[in-house]
Amino acid sequence: MINYTEIARQAAIAGSYQSIGLNYDDYLKSEAINEMAVLFGPKWKREQKTKLDAERYNEDIQLSYDFEGFDIYHKRYYHEDCKIWLDLIESLEMPIQISSINTNYKICDNSGRKINKDVKIWRFTDTETFLNIDFEVYDKAKDNNEDDIVFNNTVHVKFIWAEPKHQQGYFITVKSLKRFSKILFDTGTDYLEGWAARINHLPVKYKKRDEWRNKKVLMKDSNRKLSKNNGIALLAFWLRCGWIITGNKKDDSLISYVSPNMYYKGLEEDKDMWSDSFKYARNLPYEI
Fold first, then answer.
1. Could you write out the three-class secondary structure of 153-220?
2. Rounded to whole angstroms, how far apart are CA atoms 206 and 203?
3. β-pairing verdict for 153-161 and 191-196
4. How far is the C-alpha of 65 from the C-alpha of 32, rounded, in Å?
5. pLDDT tens across 232-279, in order?
6. Which of 71, 77, 72, 75 is nearest to 89 (CA)?
7. Sheet with 132-139: strands ordered across
8. For 27-57, how does the pLDDT look when each residue is reduced to its tens digit (9 = 90+)?
9. The pLDDT of residue 153 is above 80
């Protein structure tokens, strides 16, 4: 079951392993797979292997869509699913434009079957900063056939991007990120998640003519201590913005941006739940 307790636990583990020079994959392999397989036997191990293969397949999905083919919505022309966002944007007087495009991709279910999935990709554009967030909305409880997932309304972020001439660094990114997430959190989204991928097809403003996103850097925590693990610069950037590490694939990290509701509900369960999760953050999502 995926819920806020599990996400907080994963984020704390990830932060701890990052600071001592290990990666999250070490924990997943040694603890979650090997030990549990010994406890539940060969049949369970085979089932988990099938699920793991499906997860790996789904993690490697390369979603493609026309970046220029989005339908733009406003109060007189909109898709019914975004009306609640449009109403909130109007009431808060936010400089946010909403658009979307339909696409599809093939996923693998837990039995190993390949299934075509039709999806709508949404885009919020901050017309002041020109930053964009492309995302898919989905219900994790439905996808996992579980009704007891506590926080299941999820936004999977495909890209947070701007054209190179509009890429303005940390403070502008946080400004737009707070706007985007407030719209989503105030209308029922529990958390955002996405991959801090070191390389993608989008153009980036270079620093001294170098690709900076996959450069190895030491991360400084809230106590000004440097991590012993050289993470990539892009991951360090998003951790400073208030995202937390909640998973790993190959060389990339799954990161999440939790809602205030999710954050404070977690504290009710355990006052120390998030203590290590935001160790690298300068901006905190629950302050929105």
1. EEEEEEEEECCHHHCCCHHHHHHHHHHHHHHHHCCCCCEEEEEECCCCCCCCCCECCECCCCCEEEEE
2. 9
3. parallel
4. 35
5. 888 889 999 999 988 877 678 889 999 999 999 888 888 888 878 888
6. 75
7. 71-73, 96-108, 114-126, 132-139, 153-161, 191-196, 252-258, 244-249
8. 555 456 566 666 777 776 678 778 777 877 8
9. yes
